[in-house]
Amino acid sequence: MAxxxxxxxxxxxxxGVVAVRGSNMVINDKEFMVMVGPSGCGKTTTxxxxxGLEEITEGxxxxxxxxxxxxxxxxxxxxxxxxNYAIYPHMTVYNNMAFGLKQRKYPKDEIERRVRAAxxxxxIEHLLQRRPKALSGGQRQRVALGRxxxxxxxxxxxxxxxxxxxxxxxxEMRKELKLLHQRLQATIVYVTHDQVExxxxxxxxxxxxxxxxxxxxxxxxVYDWPATRFVAGFIGTPPMNFISGRLISRGGAPxxxxxxxxxxxxxxxxxxxxxxEGKEVDFGVRPEDFIHTPGAASGAFVPGQIKLxxxxxxxxxxxxxxxxxMLISRRDAHVAAKPGDAQQLVANPAKLxxxxxxxxxxxxxxxxxxxxxx
Length: 374
Fold this sequence. Notes:
It is a single chain. By secondary structure, this protein is an alpha+beta fold. Helices cover 24% and strands 33% of the residues. The strands form four sheets. The chain has a six-stranded mixed β-sheet, sandwiched between helices. Strands 13-12-11-14-20 form a five-stranded antiparallel β-sheet. Strands 15-19-16-17-18 form a five-stranded antiparallel β-sheet, with no helix packed on it.
């Protein structure tokens, strides 16, 4: 296997459409890297440039120690699994998996060994003589995976391979892909728009937006410490709550000033007063980080009224109107609440986020290692 290095890569299409804006990323050997973002963010274009299916406008892409900008796709020693499976309908499963090896003139016994081994790994040994029309969607996806595995490439590339499956099958295939990666110890680059897939599959995730890499890191780190407002709002279900306001000082202490109320911030936010006092900021809290309490000290809560409750079995989502803005809070399903109740939202002081209104960058991220004392 090999690492993949993307350095200052830019892609501009005819007409001046910029799809990727100077990306830099190192995908480590044997790593499962997931590229995630909304449609049109540049993730698939990046994957296709790694595969050699798109020309690079600027920058370099290396696989291992070799720069592959001018290397043909067939010579890059990669295998790609597409969204639409791309398996031949007139061939058996065995012949679909063996086709690429036959084209490369591998000996028959080597082809037999590789196909049988891949089929065993994927649990499709009993399907080898069937044709695609006799397979389910999940089985067809396994055939597409098998065709890639028999190549024994340096890098596997996956382009939204689960998007055509139903919800239950996607959950099953996510588990299978994770187990497959553990068995193969392969370098995998996986593209998806589904942040649940990204969080469950990736050793690290790369969040893209409008051709720009917003953040790269382990899923928990990206979730707990988003680098930008976009990342905070894209990763997480439901997404992070945002309240617009200003950062002000009260007796030298940091305070978030919202619409008609003020929220006392922990003392560790005090250094931000030097750079952002009086500036517009977005106050961010994840739904599970609201602490529900019937009373709170003055200045330590966000006042609101419950408008809607969604029951989800073991938990409930509480929609709270705060000065005309709807915030979502997550709590245990057995806690009594009903629409119309007054609600004081108290945020966990260790889980607060502040974002610069103008740039969207997190201004609280540099304080992540500061003492969490209020």
